[in-house]
Every structure is written in C-alpha cells, then in structure tokens.
Design brief:
- The protein contains 16 helices and 16 strands.
- It is of the alpha/beta class.
- The strands form 2 sheets. It has an 8-stranded mixed beta sheet, sandwiched between helices.
- Helix 2 packs parallel to helix 12, helix 6 runs antiparallel to helix 9 and helix 13 runs parallel beside helix 15.
- The longest helix has 25 residues.
- Belongs to the BPG-independent phosphoglycerate mutase family.
- Monomer.
Length: about 525
C-alpha cells in the first residue's frame, strides 16, 4: 500500500476571488472543502524563497528543485548574476573559449536564446553581460532571438527588441540576425519538426525575410500571431546572404533553464542524432550557459551545484519504491528537477510519461491529460504498486499561460474533479495525501488596473494541504487562505512529508515540519 501521495498542481496560486481570478467563474467544491476542513497553510513560492532574485515570480524549475531539496538553493539566475557582479563572468573559461575560438578561426560568434523579461528560461542581464564581454574582447556578435509571449506580455518583443538593438549599436557589438517564437525554438515535447525549423533558420538561413526587426514583428502581429508563435524570420534583404552558423563559428546558448533548451541543443551538440538531417559543422565551438544534459559536445559555463540528499534520494535510501508521473510538459520537473538535477532514476523509482496533446493549444483543451494521470494515480493507490506516488498536473500552469479566463475556469474544474477522485481512492486505503503547488499563475489572469490579459507567472503564495495524515490538525474557524499571508516556504514540504513517514530528514534539509 502506498505510504503517501504527493500531488503538485503546477501554477496553482492563492489570490482573492475577483474578476481577475478564474476560480470566481469555476465550480470547485473539493478545493472549497479542503480550504475549510483540511490542514492548510500558505507557502511562499517566489523570489528569494525559491532562490530567485527578490520580487521575481516563481517558476516550475525553481519550485520543483526547492520542493525536492527541502532547502534554499541559489537558482542559476542569481548565481550567474552574482558572477557578473563580482567579475568572474568575464573570465569564465567556457565563455572565453568561444571568443578565442573565433579569433583563431576567423569565424563568427553567434548567440541564441530567449529574449524576455519573464526570467523563467533566460535573463536579460545575462545577455547584456555577453554584450559587454564582446565589447571587451572586440568581437562582433550575431544574435538570434527566441521571442517569449508566454512568461511575458504576448507582444513584448515590439518594445524589447528595439532596446536590444540599440544597446548592441551603442556598444558596437553586432546585430540581431533572426527571430523565432519559443513555440518552435524551445519545444520540449518531442515535436522535432518544430526544432528542425529553428535549426534550419540558424544553420541554413531558411525562413521568412524582413528588412528590419520592427517590420517583421508588425507583419506577424497583423497576421494575429503573438511572440510565442512568431515564424522563423531572418533580418535580411531578399538577395542577401545572412550570417548563419557554419564551420569555424562559435555558438553560445544563453538560456539557463535546461528542459526547454535540450532539443535544440541536441541538434547542435549530440554525437548521435536521428530526428532530422543536420549539416556537418567542422571546427565548431558550442557553449551552453548551464548543463542541459549529459553527453552533449558542449562546454558548460556554469555547471550545476551539488544539492545534497533530496526527497527522492531519501525515500530510495529508506527502501521505498516511487512512481513519478506527469504530462510531457512537466515530466522533467517531477523527475529531473525534483531529484535535484539528477537524470538517472533512483533505485525503485518508476517514471511514467503521459504524452501531451500536440494537436491543440491548452486553452482549446483545458482538461489536457488530467484524466489519464488521475486514473494512473488511483490505480497505484488501489493496487498497492508503489510506496510513494508523486504526480504533477500541468493544467493550471499551461492553461494559465494562455490568459483565457473561460479556459482557466474549465482547467480548475478539471483539477477539482481529479483531486476529488484521488482523495476518495486514498481515503479508502488510508493513504495520506499532500497537495501543493510550485508557483502562482492561474489565480491572476487580468491586470488589476488595465484589465489586459496576463499570461505570465505571479508572485502569489501557493497552498499546501495535508489530508489524512497523523498530526494534520484542522481548524474550521481558520480565515480563508487569501487572507492569511505566508505561513511557510516550499522548503518545508519535504521535511513535513518525511516527518509523517517517520523518516529522519537529511542534514542538508533546512525546512521545517509544518505539522508541529
């Protein structure tokens, strides 16, 4: 029989009911009951509480790392910012190697990555530091931009890219040579046709052409496209040979988040690759800002730090079998990130992926694959297949990113039903359930002043419910969650679970048992 179930509702934050909160339009009897009757606390899930800069919204990577580690970790973002501030960024051997490579070969230096204020996959200051490094090295840079539209305003590129161009001009360090939406360039669901379009833009110069960034963006916007879905576009005249990536060149991939960078990174750095034809790049240097995955032929500027014993490692050490299950979109989070950046499963850890739909956007199908995940979790409970069941539901985050209020309400109703079914199965077997989120998103989908749709993450706290566990006392007179303020941190989740199991938490975990 499972000793516990952990459900991570991705992107499910706490906010007052209002026209900006889709929950005001949804029927959520299960969540309503849990807030009244279950042990419930509000957890900080943004900024320094999850190792991000102060005031920075939380994200799935930082949230899952923090839940799994049970202690505060400095995320890639602030680690790299600190390197910029202390000057070590500019002497980083991997980065300096890219500049030295093109100085030796006479080739071009390229940089590619997400240019966004969203700070989930990349950070503007990291790119600006590369510009400054190019100025110091007296080497021009060819910049290939991935546009956001999901973790930032849907048309942010309209104002952001001209600022980038102006900064490059002022420093005399190069030009923007192409842009493409993250839907194509940063696919993480195995849609290799999308990755191929990004690769062919970068290496073969295949894409639409526009004489300027402004004209290209306005043309795409006029066609109804947001930044996320911009087509592969070269900034070049029709008869011009654009500066694409070729032999003798160096390429810096400046995204810090791993999962959404892997497919395109494999196209440039995997020794064995069979998803689409690649061009042979001789004497080519590839540098990634962080370690995206093992086996890539790439220099890594900022390798991952050792985290210590995580929740998964502690469970495995105690001889417990584990089931990890999620949709494609969040599979890396409930496995790789929750395990502290470790690719290989722990002994007794089974990983199950439920393939996300690629034929419909999240707002067109807000239920996503929640039913399949629910069925798998309930079967694991009733059939006693694993000691621990850990599942991620992607609906609140993925549908929240669309900013579609009606679809968000439907997603919340889907989650409410899924949680109800799992709680019923768990109660019948006497299995405690822990229910938490990694960051806010779906609870705030309209700007409170302008009323414009919001597609990005929020700074809001997240709920932590403990149902059916010994010591999980309830207070029926407790005020609503949105009126209580933060009562804990995400680092407290793992220590609380281990305390319920009677397992001593590792010395590396600094979080507290919230049931005390």
């Amino acid at each position: 029989m499972p000793r516990f179930v952990l459900l991570i509702l991705d992107g499910f934050g706490i906010a007052p009911l209002s026209v900006a909160n889709p929950r005001s339009q949804a029927s959520t009897p299960t969540f309503d009951r849990l807030e009244r009757e279950a042990f419930t606390v509000s957890l900080q899930a943004s900024g320094i509480a999850v190792g991000l800069p102060w005031g920075e919204p939380g994200n799935s990577e930082a949230g899952h790392l923090t839940i799994g580690a049970g202690r505060l970790l400095y995320h890639h973002l602030p680690r790299i910012v600190m390197a910029i501030q202390d000057g070590s960024f500019f002497t980083n051997q991997a980065l300096k190697g890219a500049f030295a490579h093109v100085r030796r070969t006479g080739g071009r230096l390229h940089a590619m990555g997400l240019v966004s204020s969203g700070s989930v996959h990349s950070y503007p200051d990291h790119l600006y530091a590369l510009f400054e490094m190019a100025r110091r090295e007296n080497i021009s840079m060819e910049l290939h931009v991935f546009t956001d539209g999901r973790d930032a305003d849907p048309h942010e590129a309209r104002k952001f890219l001209p600022q980038i161009e102006e900064r490059m001009r002022a420093l005399g360090v190069g030009h923007i040579r192409s842009f493409i939406g993250r839907h194509l360039a940063m696919d993480r669901d195995g849609n290799w046709d999308r990755t191929a379009r990004a690769y062919r833009l970068l290496v073969e110069g295949r894409g639409e052409r526009t004489p300027s960034v402004d004209e290209g963006l306005e043309s795409a916007y006029a066609a109804g496209l947001s930044d996320e879905f911009l087509p592969a576009t070269l900034i070049a005249q029709q008869d011009e040979n654009p500066p694409v990536v070729q032999s003798g060149d160096a390429l810096i991939f400046f995204n810090f988040r791993e999962d959404s960078a892997r497919q395109l990174a494999e196209a440039f750095g995997a020794s064995a690759f069979g998803f689409f034809p690649r061009r042979e790049l001789d004497d080519f240097a590839f540098v990634t800002l962080t370690s995206y995955e093992r086996g890539l032929k790439a220099e890594v500027a900022f390798p991952a730090e050792k985290i210590g014993e995580t929740l998964g490692a502690t469970l495995a050490k105690a001889g417990m079998s584990q089931l990890r299950i999620a949709e494609t979109e969040k599979y890396a989070h409930v496995t790789y990130f929750l395990n502290g950046g470790i690719e290989e499963p722990f002994p007794g850890e089974e990983r199950r992926i439920v393939h996300s739909r690629s034929d419909a956007t999240a707002d067109a199908e807000p239920a996503m694959r929640a039913q399949e995940i629910t069925t798998a979790v309930c079967e694991a409970i009733t059939r006693h297949t694993h000691d621990a069941v850990i599942a991620n539901f992607a609906n609140a985050d993925m549908v929240g990113h669309t900013g579609n209020l009606a679809a968000c309400a439907r997603a919340l109703e889907t989650l409410d039903k899924a949680v109800a079914d799992i709680l019923q199965a768990a109660a019948a077997e006497g299995v405690p359930v822990f229910l938490v989120s990694d960051h806010g998103n779906i609870e705030e989908k309209r700007d409170r002043v302008s009323g414009r749709p919001l597609t990005e993450h929020s700074l809001n706290p997240v709920p932590f419910f403990v149902i059916g566990a010994k010591g999980a006392k309830t207070d029926t007179d407790q005020p609503p969650l949105d009126q209580r303020g933060s009562e804990g941190l995400l680092i407290d989740v793992a220590p609380t679970i281990l305390a319920v199991l009677g397992i001593k938490k590792p010395a590396s975990m600094t979080g507290q048992n919230l049931l005390k």
